[in-house]
Amino acid sequence: MYQSRDLDDPRRRLLVRLLAAGAFSTPIGRALADVLGEKPGKLPPDRSIFRLEGQVSVNGTPATLKTRIGPNDSIETGKKSEVVFVSGVSAFILRESSHLSLGRETTNNVLVSALRLLTGKMLAVFGQNNPQRISTITATIGVRGTGVYAETDPEQTYFCTCYGVTDINANSDPDSRKTVTSKHHDEPLYILAKPSGGKTIRKAPFINHTDQELMLIETLVGRTPPFVFPSEDYGGPRKDY
């Protein structure tokens, strides 16, 4: 685990590229791991945060690498800030200027993890037998064992089902819903606050997250992504600060 407050984004991206390529097994990779931080692996039970930078708080208290994150906690990041953390069998990257509230609810006698992304950007992976519901200003999304990426603001939610199955509902229109079954970022969507061109749910491009980042957070909970990982020079979209 490491705190990379002083690392720039290209160096962080190099770290996840090395992880994806298996380069930590080489002498050069091990040396770079010493410089950039400890080799990613499954976090021990007494750890929640793998990396943080900038201003990060949990339940309103400034976070450190020793901060524990429970199933009902609230996490916030400031400008040019980010936190990579684990909660139970789920793992997250919460980007800058974001506010995520974790919770649990019982629906049809089934305990469901209920996440509220109030603002900002989140990449997350969940266990196969760990039903989730993600709420944003414009959307409510049921998640069945998957990796997802979301960005939200008052006008729209961007949502990518990276892999797995999700049931997407527009909050402004109960009749606007869509089930997405994805193997590898197959159908990113915008869910709008107000219909545009008669549609509240619209197709979207693939933006602002990478397969390397998915592999990183799956590693933190002892899993790997279900897709065949691309070559080490894969350069999926990622918006820098």
How far the N terminus sits from the C terminus, by CA atoms, comes to 22 Å
Tell me the name of the CATH class of the domain at 50-209. Mainly Beta
**Main structural class:** mainly beta
- Poorly predicted segments: 1-8, 231-241
CATH second-level architecture of the domain at 50-209: Sandwich
Please bin the fraction of helical residues.
10-25%
Rg calc? 17 Å
SSE arrangement, N to C: HHEEEEEEEEEEEEEEEH
Number of strands: 15
Q: What is the average of the pLDDT values?
A: 84
Beta-strand content bin: 35-45%
The gross shape turns out to be globular
Report the major sheet.
Answer: 15 strands, mixed
CATH topology of the domain at 50-209: Jelly Rolls
User: Treating each run of at least 4 consecutive H or I residues as one helix, how many helices?
Assistant: 3
Task: Provide keyphrases for this structure.
15-stranded mixed β-sheet; disordered N terminus; single chain; 15 strands; 3 helices; 241 residues
Mind explaining what this structure looks like?
- By secondary structure, the protein is mainly β.
- It has a domain at 50-209: Jelly Rolls.
- Helix content is 14%, strand content 41%.
- The chain is built from 3 helices and 15 strands.
- The protein has a 15-stranded mixed sheet that branches.
- A hairpin with a 2-residue loop joins strand 5 and strand 6.
- Helix 1 (9-21) runs antiparallel to helix 2.
- It is globular.
- The model is unreliable at 1-8 and 231-241 (pLDDT under 50).
